[in-house]
Design a protein that fits this description.
With 157 residues, this protein is α+β, with helices and mostly antiparallel strands. The protein has five helices and five strands.
Length: 157
């Protein structure tokens, strides 16, 4: 059986509706956003429910594929929630602040710190002992990674 999880550890629980999970997601995102002098994100249940619905209805346990929705979206497979957010942020080492443009190698990082994004909702899906084991989806509103707006929204430390 596949279930959502309430924490960053491999345990069963309430998923995105769990306050502890929400706080973990916000704390991790906002730690990194503060490094770049952008406002904290707030939790959005609609975004979390969108992520849950997408992961519940699509088998991403073996191959990640974006939903194609109207939100900004980061996906990760094989990571705990905290480790996924860390991995997304760690793309900072590849980002060229002098060019301030989109790169597929840094798109997760730029979405995490995108100044214009104000809300986030995430869901972590347990695949069981197959594939990635865990899939994390975070949805952002307003979406980031808008061509022509990187200099204003992805600020250096």
């Amino acid at each position: 059986t596949t279930t959502g999880v309430a924490s960053t550890a491999p345990t069963s629980g309430l998923g995105a509706a769990d306050i502890s999970y929400q706080n973990d997601v916000l704390d991790r995102h906002n730690l990194y956003r503060r490094r770049h002098h952008v406002p904290d994100l707030t939790w959005n249940d609609d975004l979390a429910n969108y992520a849950k619905e997408y992961l519940d209805n699509h088998n991403l346990c073996f191959q990640l594929e974006h939903s194609g929705g109207s939100y900004g979206e980061n996906l990760a497979g094989g990571f705990s929630t905290a480790a996924a957010i860390d991995a997304w942020y760690n793309e900072v080492s590849l980002y060229d602040f002098n060019k301030s443009e989109f790169s597929s190698a840094t798109g997760h990082f730029t979405q995490v710190v995108w100044k214009g994004s104000t809300e986030v909702g995430c869901y972590t899906y347990q695949c069981g002992n197959v594939g990635f084991w865990w899939v994390v989806a975070c949805e952002y509103y307003p979406r980031g990674n808008i061509i022509g707006w990187f200099a204003e929204n992805v600020l250096p430390e």
